Amino acid sequence: MSIKLAKYVKSPTHNPNDENTSIYLVYNDDSTWSVPLTVGNRHYDAILEWVAHGNTIEEAD
Amino acid sequence: MSTLGQKPATQHVSTEKQTITGNGGTSYTLQQSVSQAADIEVFVNNTRQEPTVAYTANGTTLTMTGAVNSSDSFYVIFQGKAIQTAGLPVDAAITASAITASQTITSTGNITTSGTVNTPSINGGQIGGRRNLIINGAMKVAQRGTSFTSQTGDSFVVDRFKLGVTALGTWTTSQSTDAPNGFAYSAKAECTTADASPASSDLLYFYSRFEGQDLQQLKFGTSDAESVSISFYVKCSKTGVFTVNWRNQDAGRSIGSDVTISSADTWEYKTITFVGDTSGAFNNDNGWAANLEFILNGGTNYTSGNTLTSYASHSNSNGTRGGGTTLALGANTGETIQFTGVQLEVGSQATPFEHRSFGEELQLCKRYCQQLVTFQSNYESVGGAAGWGFSSTGVLQYIPLDVQMRIEPAISHNDLDVSDDINAAIATTAIAVNANVSSPRVLYINCTVSSGITQYRSYHLRTNDTSDGKLICDAEL
Question: Which residues, 6+ apart, have CB-to-CB distance to B17 below 8 Å?
Answer without folding.
Answer: B75, B76, B77, B78
